Amino acid sequence: MKKEDITIQKMNENNIKYAIQIASSLVHKPNKAMWFTPAALEKMKLEFNEYNGYIAYLNNNPVGFISYKLKKGNLDITWIGVKEALHNCGIGTRLINRILQEARDNQIASIDVETLTAHHADENYKKTIAFYKSQGFEEFKISKDKDSDKWDILTMRKSIK
Ligand SMILES: CC(C)(COP(=O)(O)OP(=O)(O)OC[C@H]1O[C@@H](n2cnc3c(N)ncnc32)[C@H](O)[C@@H]1OP(=O)(O)O)[C@@H](O)C(=O)NCCC(=O)NCCS
């Protein structure tokens, strides 16, 4: 896959459906742990309409998405996902790079993202944490998930120089 095969477009009312399709493909199935719960997917559908985001295309086919929320001095990545068959091909990195640009344009000091702690997480989430670490995020804080006692929430932070 060449760098120029991947393009990034701002999320809008026409392409939000692709983010939902990709997210749906990453939802837990009976007997198969994936990444998102059905409840998380419902939350995403609402939030994609509220928040800013980007869609990644590979040769014009939608393959990934990222959404974020701008706060004063801080940017939160709310959701990110890449089609499973294309994991580890550099698409997530391209999406994070676009968000880094967004953060710099808005004079943001740091980017936060919430995930699940490795302690509770299955293998899939260990890979997600490895991905964020590869992007320069560091473990920042651990908090209880008010919706579940099965896992803790890990916030990872990247400072913008
Ligand atoms: C997390 C996710 C978005 C990463 O996207 P991606 O396109 O696979 O990431 P990249 O190909 O850009 O990977 C960049 C780096 O992350 C690390 N990484 C990615 N996949 C990895 C894996 N399976 N195991 C270990 N490290 C991994 C590597 O260091 C990699 O760098 P390298 O290619 O130089 O070795 C993608 O795996 C995904 O959609 N996961 C499911 C949804 C999810 O976890 N969302 C976040 C919920 S909080």
What do you see in this structure?
Helix 1 packs antiparallel against helix 2 (38-50). 31% of the residues lie in helices and 34% in strands. A seven-stranded mixed β-sheet has the order 1-2-3-4-5-7-6, with helices on both faces. A hairpin with a 2-residue loop joins strand 2 and strand 3. The protein has a single domain (3-159), classed as 3-Layer(aba) Sandwich (Aminopeptidase), CATH 3.40.630. With 161 residues, it is an alpha+beta fold. The structure holds coenzyme A (COA). Coenzyme A binds at residues 26, 35, 80-82, 87-93, 115, 127-128, 130-131, 134.
How much beta, percentage-wise?
25-35%
- The DSSP helix count reads 4
Percent of residues in helical segments? 25-40%
Over the alpha carbons, how many angstroms does the gyration radius reach? 15 Å
Q: Write out the CATH superfamily name.
A: Gcn5-related N-acetyltransferase (GNAT)
What is the CATH domain class? Answer: Alpha Beta
Q: What's the rounded overall pLDDT mean?
A: 91
**What is the architecture at the second tier of CATH?**
3-Layer(aba) Sandwich
Number of strands: 7
CATH fold group:
Aminopeptidase
Q: Which ligands does the model contain, each kind named once?
A: coenzyme A
Q: Main sheet: which strands, in order across?
A: 1-2-3-4-5-7-6
H/E topology pattern: EHHEEEHEHEE
